[in-house]
Amino acid sequence: MSGLMIADDFDIIREDLKAGLEEEGFEVKALASSGYEAVERYEKGIIVLMDIEMESADAGIKATERILEGDPEARIIFLTSHDDDQMIMTAMATGAKDFVVKGSGMAEIARHIRDVEAGRPRLSDRVHGVLMGEYKRLRQSEQNLLFFIQHLSSLTTAERELISCFLQGMKVKEIAAKRFVEPVTVKSQIRTLLSKTGCSRTKDIVSMIHGLGLERLFM
Fold it and tell me: What DSSP line would sit under 168-201, residue for residue?
């Protein structure tokens, strides 16, 4: 069974985790009260329980990155009270094996450790959901980008101007007045543009462009 290192800046939490995990059969080989100490005391082969906020708000994340730079096979589990979506994404992007929220029972924490040790991390439903959501978002962004690039060259000058107006929040009547045409003409051009972009509303076009970061192409 692999040894453990517990990195947490609260003495009581470190000692409580140490006692509880030793009762679960683990050997706690090292304790660290900061990200700096975690890096200094890390030894290959051990599994690290890493708090995120220690001497700084992201000390655990920085420590994890440094450990993984020296040992790409390092097995690090974040054990933290921070469970918002962005923190989960930031933490897991380091290459950590798992993310467990403080307050989980000792038996639950032990199960996560054993699964990481066995090479099959058991992400919680919460963490798995966040990661899958981000994966789907990135895949959708990639598909949207490819689709948009493929159709970009087919846009007429008038259609590009329309998109610019949409990005500025202009309405049909305002666009018609600016371009000195009738609103019915603008509406006809909008229908053609929606067909080309595969969108059902002008708001969808704006959202897609913002999501892909392509505003500069139309301003």
Answer: TT--HHHHHHHHTS-HHHHHHHHHHHHHHHT-SS
**What is the predicted pLDDT for the residue at 205?**
84
Phi, psi of 78 (to 5 degrees): -75, 130
Q: How confident is the model at residue 26 (pLDDT cuts 50, 70, 90)?
A: very high
Radius of gyration of the chain (CA): 26
Euclidean distance between CA atoms 155 and 157, whole angstroms: 7
Tell me the per-residue pLDDT of 43-59, one tens digit each, with 9 for 90 and over: 999 999 999 999 998 89
The Cα–Cα gap between 190 and 178 comes to 15
Q: Whose CA is closest to 121, among 78, 82, 81?
A: 78
Instruction: Tell whether the torsion through CA atoms of 55, 44, 127 and 21 is positive or negative.
Output: negative
Residue 128 confidence (pLDDT) above 50: no
Residue spans of the domains in the chain: they are 3-122, 151-218
Domain 151-218: give its CATH architecture. Orthogonal Bundle (1.10)
CATH architecture of the domain covering 3-122? 3-Layer(aba) Sandwich (3.40)
